[in-house]
Amino acid sequence: MKLYGMQQSRSFRCLWALEESGLEYDYIPIKLRVSEEEPDSAQNPAYLSINVQGKVPTLVDGEMILTESVAILNHIGRSAPESGLLPLDNIRIQAKHDELVSFVLAELEQPLWSKGKHTFALPEEQRIPAMLETAKFEFAKAVHTLEHLINENEFAVAEKFSIVDILLAQTFNWAMRFEFDVPKRFVDLRDNHYKRPSAERALKLVS
Ligand SMILES: N[C@@H](CCC(=O)N[C@@H](CS)C(=O)NCC(=O)O)C(=O)O
Description:
alpha+beta, 4 strands
């Protein structure tokens, strides 16, 4: 497998999962918002031929190309069933896992991405600075909901580390970098999971 990614981006969740999985892979760093002339630019025609949006992450596994981080995470989990990254042996736990993954994507990370889009990602003329207060409001609402969706255990579902723990830790790390209010409980969750050897190895690869 080949993972194309960038240090502080959604590709880190996939890199972390690959480290946790024990699968063999190559990591190829990509740069956003640099000239398409640069060979590692996300706008270079060679990269656009595998990811038409010029975004990260992209995973190439043989003939198959995936350009959505959750599809990549699920593929990693299914390719390494013994890693326990997906709760494949219990459909009810799997359903709760799916629910939380959807929640992180649809509710928790969207306000963070709104801030990203309206501060640096969108063309300047499309940015709406007033969005930032709305994003903070929406993030606080999502955090409140999450407090009711997960219990106080070390891991979000079942009794072991899974893909949704990677998603939660990385999303709260993103929230802290973007200066959103993160309750201590979720700062601790982030700190705890980032101490895993797999996370430390992934961080070393991108630093
Ligand atoms: N839904 C996609 C979103 C991918 C995405 O938007 N990635 C951002 C980085 S986190 C990106 O590459 N943005 C391109 C840009 O900002 O120019 C996923 O989860 O993989």
